[in-house]
Automatic annotation (TrEMBL):
The protein's Enzyme Commission number: 2.1.1.193
Subcellular location: Cytoplasm
Name of the protein this chain belongs to: Ribosomal RNA small subunit methyltransferase E
The keyword Lyase appears for this protein: no
InterPro entries per record: Alpha/beta_knot_MTases (IPR029028), RsmE (IPR006700), RsmE_MTase_dom (IPR046886), tRNA_m1G_MTases_N (IPR029026)
Pfam family, any one: Methyltrans_RNA
Keywords assigned by UniProt, alphabetized: Cytoplasm, Methyltransferase, rRNA processing, S-adenosyl-L-methionine, Transferase
Originating organism: Marinobacter lutaoensis
GO biological process: rRNA base methylation
Length: 239
């Protein structure tokens, strides 16, 4: 936690917030903060700054916060991800939030097991919790929007063309002819397949909708690795 993300419920006054639970435990045991110490904080979907610890007990910490700094720029990326298996899903969510993805679409695909959609990690509180962990890791405050589409064909035929308006689109698929471009730094849409990959039919449909097939070389990467590799090829984080 490189920043404690504060939600509206945490605020007891314009410049005062209370931390409890996980964030309090982190403050005490990892940051080893005491009264008078300053810790990095941010308000969800708002500014970032510092919080001075005014009071610290076993159950809560009260902070005086000064929020003056803008969060880092968002990636101009719409990420379309075939629903990963639950074990990997939490990590992928956190990674997406840390990388600055703000627009995430979770879609069905032939090799996504139906049971993946039953995972409790898709519930609103769990989505928020994991996205919060990713934002706190990267020092960002802007909560990504996650949309779920459990039918591949209607999504690709009816919604994808609209999402592609004004942006370049790619589908990452091993064995395609074109290497994934680098330093694009412009509005983009990227599709990443499931553990078993997109089927040829699905790649064809994504291409028909306007996504170009791109590859990352002969090494087949896990989804959780492919996401940061693809994002860091397309966008320069340290410009
Ligand atoms: N056996 C699957 C296949 O050949 O498509 C492997 C799928 S891979 C574990 C999961 C997803 O990560 C792929 O669908 C693709 O979107 C992306 N990916 C992983 N390695 C890749 C590579 N070398 N080139 C392009 N995309 C890759």
């Amino acid at each position: 936690m490189n920043l404690a993300l504060l939600f509206d419920d945490d605020f007891i006054a314009e410049d005062r917030a209370r931390l409890t639970g996980r964030r309090l435990a982190h403050l005490r045991s990892v940051l080893k903060a005491g009264t008078g110490d300053q810790v990095p904080v941010g308000r969800v979907n708002g500014r970032m700054g510092m919080g001075e610890v005014l009071r610290l007990s076993d159950t809560e910490a009260e902070l005086r916060v000064q929020l003056t700094q803008l969060p880092p720029p968002a990636l101009p990326l719409t990420l379309v991800l075939a629903m990963p298996r639950p074990k990997m899903f939490r990590r992928v969510l956190q990674t997406c939030a840390s990388l600055g993805v703000k627009d995430l679409w979770l879609i069905h695909s032939y090799k996504v097991e139906k049971s993946f959609w039953q995972t409790p990690w898709l519930s609103e509180p769990h989505l928020r919790e994991n996205l919060t962990l990713g934002l706190e890791q990267a020092r960002d405050t802007v909560m990504p929007r996650v949309q779920v589409r459990q039918r591949f064909k209607p999504f690709v035929e009816d919604e994808l063309p609209g999402l592609l308006a004004g942006r370049q689109g790619w589908v990452a698929h091993p064995g395609t002819a074109t290497p994934c471009p680098v330093h694009v730094n412009a509005p983009a849409l990227l599709c990443i397949g499931p553990e078993g990959g997109f089927t040829p039919y699905e790649v064809g449909k994504l291409e028909e909708a306007g996504c170009q097939g791109v590859h990352l070389g002969p090494r087949i990467l896990r989804v959780e690795t492919a996401v940061p590799v693809l994002v860091s090829r397309l966008f320069d984080a340290c410009r």
